[in-house]
Amino acid sequence: MKYLVLWRIELSLLSREMASAVARMPAYAAPLERSGAVVGRYHLVGQHGGAWIYDVGSHEELERLLGQSPVYNFSRYEIYPLAEMPDAVADGPG
After folding, report:
1. CB atoms within 10 A of CB 65
2. Chain center to CA of 78
3. Residue 14 pLDDT level (bands cut at 50, 70, 90)
4. In whole angstroms, what is the distance from residue 39 CA to residue 20 CA?
5. Cα 76–chain centre separation
6. CATH (one of 3.30.10.20, 3.30.70.1060, 3.65.10.10, 3.40.640.10) for 2-82
7. Sequence spans of domains, the chain
């Protein structure tokens, strides 16, 4: 199941620990990308955060992976389950 996860850094929590957590994000992401659990990572232009697409077996797995993120305690999350859209209906009108 795919999920779009938008995460934004809470600037009110700005600290040395937060900066360190942000610096660890590439190392956190690399094995997830290799395994296919993360299929896309994007920066939110003009914001402090990202948009990641996770492809996991369950919402419990997603929760576990988010909880392991270095920025978990410094961010606010919006999570959207994604569904495939068919290109066209073969027997439909048109």
Report:
1. 19
2. 9
3. confident
4. 24
5. 11
6. 3.30.70.1060
7. 2-82
Residues 6+ apart with CB under 8 A from 70: 20, 21, 22, 24, 25, 28
- Please give the structure tokens belonging to residue 10: 């809470």
Q: What is the pTM (predicted TM-score) of this model? A: 0.84
Beta strand extents in the chain (DSSP E only):
2-9, 38-43, 49-55, 75-82
Angle between the N-to-C axes of helices 16-23 and 25-35, in degrees from 0 to 180, rounded to the nearest 10: 30
CA pseudo-torsion sign 40, 44, 50, 53: negative
Q: Which helix (DSSP H) or strand (DSSP E) does residue 67 occupy?
A: helix 59-68
Which strand (E) or helix (H) includes residue 81?
Answer: strand 75-82
